[in-house]
Amino acid sequence: MWQGLQSITDYKKKTSPVADHDVLLPDKLNNFFARFEDNTVPPTRPATKTCRLSFTAANVRKTFKCVNPRKAAGPDGIPGRVLRACADQLAGVFTDIFNQSLSQAAVPTCFKRATIVPVPKKAKVTELNDYRPVALTSVIMKCFERLVKDHITSILPDTLDPLQFAYRPNRSTDDAIAITLHTALTHLDKRNTYVRMLFIDYSSAFNTIVPSKLVIKLETLGLDPALCNWVLDFLTGRPQVVRVGNNISTPLILNTGAPQGCVLSPLLYSLFTHDCVAKHASNSIIKFADDTTVVGLITNNDETAYREEVRALGVWCQENNLSLNVNKTKEMIVDFRKQEREHPPIHIEGTVVEKVESFKFLGVHITDKLNWSTHTDSVVKKAQQRLFNLRRLKKFGLSPKSLTNFYRCTIESILSGCI
What we know:
By secondary structure, this protein is α+β, with helices and mostly antiparallel strands. The chain folds into 3 domains: 21-159 and 210-259, no CATH class; 173-203 and 273-370, Alpha-Beta Plaits, CATH 3.30.70; 374-416. Helix content is 41%, strand content 16%. The protein has helices at residues 2-9, 25-33, 57-65, 80-85, 87-104, 109-112, 139-155, 173-188, 211-220, 225-235, 265-272, 304-319, 373-395, 400-415; strands at 114-120, 131-137, 193-200, 238-244, 247-248, 252-254, 283-288, 291-299, 330-334, 347-348, 351-352, 354-355, 358-361, 364-367. Strands 1, 2, 4, 5 and 6 form a 5-stranded mixed sheet that branches. The protein has a 5-stranded mixed sheet with strand order 7-8-3-9-12, sandwiched between helices. The chain has a two-stranded antiparallel sheet with strand order 10-11. A hairpin with a 2-residue loop joins β7 and β8. The two termini are 29 Å apart.
């Protein structure tokens, strides 16, 4: 149904198709996506006792029955609808495979394979960085990961990284936005104060995770060393190819990063960055996945703590192999004092960070006046465009139920966002 609606309304602008006549493009993209690979021998860890984690056939059966049958199959060619339809018959076999994998701290190579399908980020592609790598991985492995993910989240303390709002129950972008604005506005109520907000941009954050450093952090969080070894094996020795049309690249073996198409990757990234916290009480580092914002509360023009925080963040990034994209990192200064003052710029890696008057923060336009006019104008404009599509659908004679669904999904959703 949605394909028909999009065809009638031209609802989503089509990006330029990936050119499949260039037979060298898959290899170029594969090398580009793997540019953070250090080409060293994959790390090994001493053997530990057998992993205490194991799953029952009931756990596996339930996970198989929750598979979305419309999701694309991975490199193994096994579609999700097969796992869902045959969950009762397959649960026992894969329960043994999953438990054997955990006990040996080894993930079968066929489960780790990934096929990258490049998707253009914008209408006109001019460079390799204009492609977004969408990874197709084994549906079976995704089910396995989901079981492991549920176990890890169940043993993590509730107080872990309170300012990370992604991949946590009962948290969302709305909470991150509310905390950020509340922190700023509360401080601005005091005399002779202002706020500096630094919106950090990382280059391919997930692809830069160093597995050996990650598992050390996982152990400090209380995870079973044997399970940490399993995670290390899961993230290393991963065969990857890029497919463009009928052309497929030469496989590369990756030992760095977490594949973005995997269920475990978002959680592992949040745990990898859980120790990226503010060192000064006057600062906050608010995170939603890899969107990181440093909020500096300045009093009496003393920016010492804020500037030290930015320097410390740069050091932390270097120690943890995260690459700061200074060109896309922006800073916004909120100063309500009557007397205008010149604010010295922030430097990162010797480059001046650009100051902006407004910034789209987690989908919401915020300005240095902290008013909602820019965001409201943007939402109204977007809603009006989609309202035009709704009128077109009505002319085509769609049923009231279909029109209501279209309205709720495309118009009401943006009007009610962040409320």
